[in-house]
Specification:
The protein has one domain. The protein is 71% helix and 0% strand. It has eight helices and no strands. Helix 7 packs antiparallel against helix 8.
Length: 164
């Protein structure tokens, strides 16, 4: 009796692991397709934390479209999703710090498509106190061009600095 119960548990565990691994493979393939798509007419995946994880893992090798796909996930509808909100806020500041000019370029190019006003509220309200806001501000001020978004970002950063 104990042996049959043990075998049933072992079978169930093995079956579940295979299903989970199969899901991860499918999910990874779909995520790669989603994050690398150039199709701006597609529905955006709001609050998709997998895209945020992808951005963090690939921070040094991002394209405009990948950053757009990340920014597209940030929406007011995610406000009650604490895990997504905190993580995406952290990654937004990581982008601003490490990929300042590329971030401004994407902001400027897609400002009318992304939820720009909400992204500015993200910048004005950083989750992490350890974010180097002054450094980010100096980096942004040193870049020429992108005035249509620079003003908004600088204003949001000054609000964030005032909260420290």
């Amino acid at each position: 009796m104990k042996l049959s119960f043990f075998l049933i548990l072992l079978f169930l565990q093995f079956s579940l692991c295979n299903n989970i691994n199969g899901f991860n493979k499918i999910s990874k393939i779909n995520l790669e397709q989603l994050i690398n798509t150039n199709d701006l007419d597609k529905d955006c995946e709001k609050c998709n934390i997998e895209i945020v994880v992808y951005i963090k893992k690939n921070i040094n090798d991002l394209t405009e479209h990948q950053i757009y796909n990340f920014l597209c996930t940030i929406d007011i509808s995610c406000k009650n999703n604490v895990e997504f909100s905190q993580f995406s806020n952290e990654i937004l500041f990581l982008l601003l710090h490490q990929k300042t000019e590329l971030s401004l370029k994407v902001f400027s190019k897609y400002k009318k498509i992304i939820n720009w006003d909400y992204i500015c509220t993200y910048i004005a309200d950083p989750i992490n106190d350890g974010i180097k806001l002054y450094e980010i501000l100096q980096n942004i001020e040193a870049i020429s061009g992108y005035d249509d978004v620079k003003t908004d970002v600088i204003e949001a950063l000054k609000i964030a600095i005032g909260k420290q």
